[in-house]
Predict the structure.
Amino acid sequence: MSYVDAGYIIAFSVLFLYVVSLLVRRRRLERAVANVAPRGDAVQPSASQDGTP
């Protein structure tokens, strides 16, 4: 195996691990948002301050 091949393997391995970490973080974020959204504790946005809808 040449050094060039080894470099490509390392680069693509790092890229693959980065993509996997992004997918895991996105899944965790989606679950966190799903857990917060149904409660309804958040303040609902109101109409504008000048009275127009």
